[in-house]
């Protein structure tokens, strides 16, 4: 017999050992042969849900450019749902989880030689340094190697028709029977296959099959295959509970979670079935077999259906991505960190701190041409001018976010870039600053924004062309959800948004403010016309208050005139200034423009080398004003980005260091003077150490 003390120690040791075994049963050591993207690696280290996506649908499932558009759309759906997408593929012999936009383009390009790669083909693709598109089977395997629990696809493979002659059974079914706890969210079995035999085979293999929100098992293009579903789940939460139970029991299989195609996109079932039957017969007659069968039949069906099958395919896979993302989020909530997260073979990066700053708006590539000082004409119009051309990162919102990040903030940037070389350049540079890119949309619908500026020999702006069409896509972003997730103390946005997107920002912020009373809203107009756009959005949204407005003098005038036109302000009201109105000057301009303070609490007016004016109204009609002269100038290289730098540093100073407004403006102006002397929109000389003197100094009386 054990003495009481020894028995207690033994029981404690046993309890600890059991706890360790339980943790190890659910944690996963990431396979070092899998190359993770930065976003996937970051999500993995933080224990955030990852949704795996296949790539055969890109290379073999759809025509170009629909395939690229759908690939980007699926990733955006997953991101907007609060998860991290991990598209699987083999690029130059590297097995990758998470692809760059250029890699998605590579797979989508019909000129690229891409091999359809199941699990049996992985080693061959790696050894031969080939490009490979992953099937359901190989995608499941890669997902299991990085700890992803949810995998989204269109439809799974299965038992082919005429199996008694061909013995053609998809490897998808084999992998489902031996890859543990990876749930495949799909629209059932591809309708070109023998669905009853496929379900029978899955039952034999012990693979759970369930349909979400339907008692009938779907058949890819159609909502009802005519076969009852083995299991029915009422919603995504029940699906997540099923996955977790599978994990807890350590069952040796994956799961099939079927989602019927949205009813409005389901083609006529009988008509489509006749087309499929004919395509199958044609494939047999032509002797097409093996991995070539499915692409041939799908292409044939797309042609014969007049494109209806392609539209249905897009709709169902996007629906599956939404459902799969919700399942992944529920699963994360059900699981404790020890049962869901993965561990990486090298030290994990620390979790990101919560961000007090959220910024919505433009990311752009700035292409700047500056006319030479030696040019006899400054400038010569209707002809070329000798000078220099440079390109740097730009975009008002992105510049503000970089300025915040360089000071030590962790701003959340909500923006959009194109699936092109400029977009890749922008994303890589943003990541290099340590900024979170999970809320940046990547799309092939629009090119990355480009701002093409022409400067005179002094570095001042002469004219510019701005292609900012991509920012129209931010209208679809779920702003309220991101606000709820990020919980910022200040939300800033720029004028590059469409009027409808501005209206949605104002509406979402109003709802957010009901439970976050101290949260503030900041706006940078960007241009005269875009400043007017905000007033139009304010009227449409019924939201007539901005906490911080930071226009230049010309933008202020345009906004004041628009506010009067829209009857948003009372132009007959006079100002009661704490200082004399002569002190509340606007460089000799009409001080009646300060009537905009009926809509604004803090007004920061920028006027380049002539400095800044700051006005504040207390809600009772009393206005205080402060002058800030421009900082001692360095040699001017470019004024582009100076105002954005100033506002970004101000946001950091106000929120992170809790400076008062006057010191925040001083810090921002000093930073702007550094950016004026830099070729980059935001000077690299701005860093954490830069902001410290402003934190320590006492507020001086402003004359």
Q: The CATH topology of the largest domain, please?
A: UDP-N-acetylmuramoyl-L-alanine:D-glutamate ligase
**Bulk shape:** elongated
Task: Assess the beta-strand content as a share of residues.
Answer: 15-25%
Count of beta strands: 27
- At CATH level 2, the architecture of the largest domain is 3-Layer(aba) Sandwich
- Residue stretches low in confidence (pLDDT < 50, at least 5 long) are 1-27, 337-353, 578-583, 698-703
Q: What does the average pLDDT come to?
A: 83
Fourth CATH level, the homologous superfamily of the largest domain: Ribokinase
Structural class: alpha/beta
**Count of helical segments?**
24
> Could you tell me how far the N terminus lies from the C terminus, measured between alpha carbons in angstroms?
87 Å
From the alpha-carbon coordinates, what is the Rg to the nearest angstrom?
Answer: 29 Å
Q: CATH top level of the largest domain?
A: Alpha Beta
* Number of self-contained structural domains: 2
Biggest sheet, in brief? 11 strands, mixed
Query: Helicity level, as a percent range?
Result: 40-55%
GO cellular component, one term: cytoplasm
GO molecular function: hydrolase activity, acting on glycosyl bonds; kinase activity; metal ion binding; pseudouridylate synthase activity
InterPro entries: Carboh/pur_kinase_PfkB_CS, Indigdn_synthA-like, PfkB_dom, PsuG, Ribokinase-like
Pfam family, one: PfkB
């Amino acid at each position: 017999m054990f003495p009481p003390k020894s028995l207690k120690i033994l029981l404690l040791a046993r309890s600890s050992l059991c706890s360790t075994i339980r943790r190890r049963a659910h944690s996963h050591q990431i396979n070092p042969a899998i190359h993770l993207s930065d976003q996937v690696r970051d999500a993995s280290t933080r224990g955030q849900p990852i949704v795996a996506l296949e790539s055969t649908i890109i290379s073999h499932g759809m025509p170009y450019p629909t395939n690229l558009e759908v690939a980007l759309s699926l990733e955006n759906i997953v991101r907007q749902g609060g998860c991290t997408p991990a598209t699987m593929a083999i690029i130059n012999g590297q097995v990758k989880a998470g692809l760059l936009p250029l890699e998605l383009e590579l797979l989508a390009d019909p000129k690229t030689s891409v091999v359809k790669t199941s699990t049996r083909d992985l080693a061959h693709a790696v050894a031969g340094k080939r490009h490979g598109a992953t099937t359901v089977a190989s995608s499941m395997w890669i997902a299991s190697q990085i700890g992803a629990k949810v995998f989204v696809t269109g439809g799974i493979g299965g038992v082919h028709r005429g199996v008694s002659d061909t013995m053609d059974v998809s490897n998808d079914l084999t992998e489902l029977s031996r890859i543990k706890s990876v749930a495949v969210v799909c629209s059932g079995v591809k309708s070109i296959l023998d669905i009853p035999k496929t379900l029978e085979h899955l039952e034999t293999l012990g693979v759970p099959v369930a349909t979400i929100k339907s008692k009938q098992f779907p058949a890819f293009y159609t909502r009802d295959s005519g076969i009852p579903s083995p299991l029915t789940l009422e919603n995504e939460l029940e699906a997540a509970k099923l996955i977790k139970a599978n994990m807890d029991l350590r069952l040796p299989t994956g799961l099939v979670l079927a989602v019927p195609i949205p009813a409005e996109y389901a083609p006529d079932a009988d008509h489509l079935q006749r087309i499929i039957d004919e395509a199958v017969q044609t494939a047999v007659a032509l002797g097409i077999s093996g991995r070539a069968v499915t692409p041939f039949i799908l292409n044939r069906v797309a042609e014969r259906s007049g494109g209806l099958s392609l539209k249905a395919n897009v709709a169902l896979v996007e629906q599956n991505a939404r459902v799969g993302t919700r399942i992944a989020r529920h699963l994360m909530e059900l699981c404790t960190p020890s049962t869901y997260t993965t561990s990486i073979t090298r030290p994990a990066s620390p979790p990101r701190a919560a961000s007090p700053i959220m910024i919505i708006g433009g990311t752009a590539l700035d292409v700047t041409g500056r006319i030479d000082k030696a040019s006899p004409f400054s400038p010569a119009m209707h002809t070329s001018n000798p000078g220099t051309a440079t390109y740097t990162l730009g975009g008002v919102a992105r510049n503000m976010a970089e300025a915040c990040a360089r000071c030590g903030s962790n701003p959340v940037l909500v923006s959009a870039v194109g699936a092109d070389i400029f977009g890749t350049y922008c994303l890589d540079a943003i990541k290099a600053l340590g900024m979170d890119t999970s809320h940046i949309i990547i799309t092939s619908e629009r090119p990355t924004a480009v701002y093409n500026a022409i400067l005179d020999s002094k570095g001042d702006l002469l004219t510019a062309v701005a292609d900012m069409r991509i920012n129209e896509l931010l209208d679809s972003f779920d702003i309220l959800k991101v606000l709820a997730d990020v919980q910022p103390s200040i939300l800033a946005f720029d004028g590059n948004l469409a009027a409808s997107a501005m209206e949605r920002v104002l509406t979402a912020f109003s709802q957010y403010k009901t439970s976050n009373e101290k949260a503030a809203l900041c706006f940078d107009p960007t241009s005269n016309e875009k400043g007017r756009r905000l007033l139009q959005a304010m009227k449409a949204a019924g939201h007539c208050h901005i906490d911080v407005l930071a226009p230049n003098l010309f933008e202020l005038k345009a906004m004041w005139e628009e506010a009067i036109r829209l009857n948003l302000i009372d132009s007959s009201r006079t100002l009661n200034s704490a200082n004399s109105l002569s002190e509340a000057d606007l460089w000799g301009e009409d001080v009646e423009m300060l009537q905009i303070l009926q809509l604004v609490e803090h007004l920061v007016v920028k006027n380049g080398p002539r400095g800044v004016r700051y006005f504040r109204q207390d809600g009772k009609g009393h206005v205080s004003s402060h002058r800030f002269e421009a900082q001692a100038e360095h040699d001017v290289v470019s004024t582009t980005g100076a105002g954005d730098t100033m506002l970004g540093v101000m946001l950091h100073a106000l929120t992170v260091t809790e400076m008062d407004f006057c010191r925040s403006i001083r810090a921002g102006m000093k930073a702007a003077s550094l950016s004026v002397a830099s070729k980059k929109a935001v000077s690299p000389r701005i860093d954490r150490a830069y902001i410290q003197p402003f934190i320590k100094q006492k507020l001086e009386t402003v004359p």
